[in-house]
């Protein structure tokens, strides 16, 4: 591959205008996942980032965070913790509500998903307003986990979520950054 890995992944992300409603450009990671080469490059970027860190678990946010998170956990020989939408987990849960543009939502984890002091990296596909990511961080911390870093494939910085996460002092890693008017690639 003669292309920078970041450029390669960012160029594979499909932009779908006016979805799910007019004025919104949806950033679709499906083409990255469908192509074995780009999927491998993406996974390897995260594996190389975390392979020398002392971690105990990877937590992934429902639902696209499960895809990358579970593969990363497997590659790093770590356990995987799902952070699910409300009502999807069968055992005793702890919940965190957060605000969406038009209402509220809730994410949950099993009460025994992490043990106090375990070092966790939290993965999702995208960070927009930061509500889901912050709710997942709070859940993990409430159960005693040490969230080492939050990570996502895509950052939409104009929506403020990456700033919200960084203001907590928690490191945030993203592969691609998409501004509203133009596309820019960066390593965060």
Describe the structure.
This protein is an alpha/beta fold. The protein has one domain: Rossmann fold. It has helices spanning 5-12, 30-34, 36-50, 64-76, 131-142, 161-167, and strands spanning 14-17, 25-28, 57-61, 79-85, 93-100, 103-110, 119-127, 146-155, 172-178, 183-185. Strands 5-6-4-3-7-8-9-10 form an 8-stranded mixed sheet, with helices on both faces. The protein has a two-stranded antiparallel ribbon with strand order 1-2. It is globular. One of its GO terms (cellular component) is cytoplasm. Residues 53-158 form the Phosphoribosyltransferase domain. Pathway: Purine metabolism; AMP biosynthesis via salvage pathway; AMP from adenine: step 1/1.
Note the main attributes of this structure.
188 residues, 6 helices, eight-stranded mixed sheet, Rossmann fold, alpha/beta, two-stranded antiparallel sheet, disordered C terminus
Largest sheet: 8 strands, mixed
Shape: globular
| Helix/strand class | alpha/beta
Q: How many strand elements?
A: 10
Write down the Rg. Answer: 16 Å
Instruction: Give the termini distance in whole angstroms.
Output: 22 Å
- Write down the CATH topology: Rossmann fold
Tally of DSSP helical segments = 6
CATH class: Alpha Beta
Range of helix content: 25-40%
Q: What percentage of the residues does DSSP assign to strands (E)?
A: 25-35%
What string, H for helix and E for strand, traces the elements in order? HEEHHEHEEEEHEHEE
Mean pLDDT: 93
Pathway: Purine metabolism; AMP biosynthesis via salvage pathway; AMP from adenine: step 1/1
Function: Catalyzes a salvage reaction resulting in the formation of AMP, that is energically less costly than de novo synthesis.
Main location: cytoplasm
Subcellular location: Cytoplasm
């Amino acid at each position: 591959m003669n292309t920078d890995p970041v450029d390669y992944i960012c160029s594979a992300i499909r932009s779908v205008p006016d979805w799910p409603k007019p004025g919104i450009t949806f950033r679709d990671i499906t083409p990255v996942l469908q192509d074995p080469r780009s999927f491998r490059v993406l996974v390897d970027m995260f594996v190389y980032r975390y392979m020398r860190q002392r971690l105990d678990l990877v937590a992934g946010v429902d639902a696209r965070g499960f895809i990358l998170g579970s593969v990363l956990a497997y590659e790093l020989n770590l356990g995987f913790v799902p952070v699910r939408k409300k009502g999807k987990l069968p055992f005793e849960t702890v919940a965190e509500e957060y605000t969406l543009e038009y209402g509220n939502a809730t994410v949950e984890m099993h009460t025994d998903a992490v043990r106090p002091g375990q070092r966790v990296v939290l993965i999702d596909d995208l960070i927009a307003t930061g509500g889901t990511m912050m709710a997942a961080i709070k859940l993990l911390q409430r159960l005693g986990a040490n969230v080492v870093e939050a990570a996502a494939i895509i950052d939409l910085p104009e929506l403020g979520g990456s700033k919200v996460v960084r203001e907590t002092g928690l490191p945030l890693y993203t592969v691609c950054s998409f501004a509203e008017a133009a596309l820019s690639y960066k390593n965060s």
